[in-house]
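TL;DR need structure tokens for one chain.
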Amino acid sequence: MDEMKAIAEMLNEPPNQRTEDEGRRRLRREIADPSAGRRARTRFGWPLKAGLGIVAAGAAAAVAVSAVGTGTAPAESPEAGAPQGEVDLGRQAVLVAAENAAKQETGKYFFTDHVSGQSYVVPAETGAYAIDGARSATFVAAGLEPGDDVTFYEQFPGPRMWSPQDGAAWKKAGSPSKIKVWSSDKWLTFDMAEKAPWKLDGTNTQQEWLGKYTLEKLRNLPTDPEKLAAEVFDGTTPEAGRIDASGGELPAHMKTEEFVAASKIRAVGWRLSDLPVPPKVRAALMKALMAQPGVRAVGETTDPLGRKGVALTSGSRSYEVTGEFGTPPEQQGTYSSRQEIVFDKATGNALAMQEVLTEPGGPYKDRKPGFIINYTAIRDTGWSDTEPTPPRNAS
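>> reply
TL;DR here they are.
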């Protein structure tokens, strides 16, 4: 828990410029080589270079909850799969997305545009509402010719209401411009008017960006799902969900099928979103993930930006929120959630990585199953023959 303690201490004191610079350098090193240390966003999605705010808030959230076992998905959930002899429509939908991913065209540049966020349920006498807070965005533009640099941009878009219903409840509560929420071990205040433009956040060399990979190695990854799975889910690496970052044995609750499946979903999500993985390898990664124990296909779901897609999910796990770190009594309790990676069926692009509520309770007791607890959404990604730049009107 030393990492959690350090993050909690960081949250108590605003970072100075030296701390921010060192944090960015450390994040880039961890992202470039996930096996060298625990990745910053293990719980809330794949690792992103920017967005120190959501890294801290997300990691701190893990302090206030403890896994208490494996939950059960709602009865109507597609998690159970199709009965023997019937067509698994979720699996077929994901296979279609994978085949379309294999048809993508490449170019001289690779780019990716991410936004991450964390949900907070705000109590009010007139009715609770949910906000999408602690949001941060990253845009990466990478030249793929030898010697090209990789440019990073960052943005902090500010909080937003999760739904029109939440917006109506906020207005009913008087449309407060400042919203106070409990975040793991402290109160945070979000400014609803906060909006920030994109700003340049530095450059890396290709090797700093790719870490243990090279462009040649990425291009030569197996396109056979079984061979690719053997490499990506190698049991000697933390990404396989069998050992921790230092090589030590995981505790028992981290060896469950649900936990290991979620680890593998994150490993695939990182590669599909952050790296210029060739189209046919992308398709093979999707198929390899779908074949893993505990990973289930869902024929239709919605991502944090309201886009429809197909998904691969882990099983549900239960978490108990206690008062150990001062959590208000009304937010304590047990809830269950699962990890999902969402794909666009038409293009095969990864749309989002999200933690989804399966059994309400604790801080999410008045939310319905399907509520997104936290996420990283890929607003756009792909290849281009002209140098990419951040979108002007991203929100």
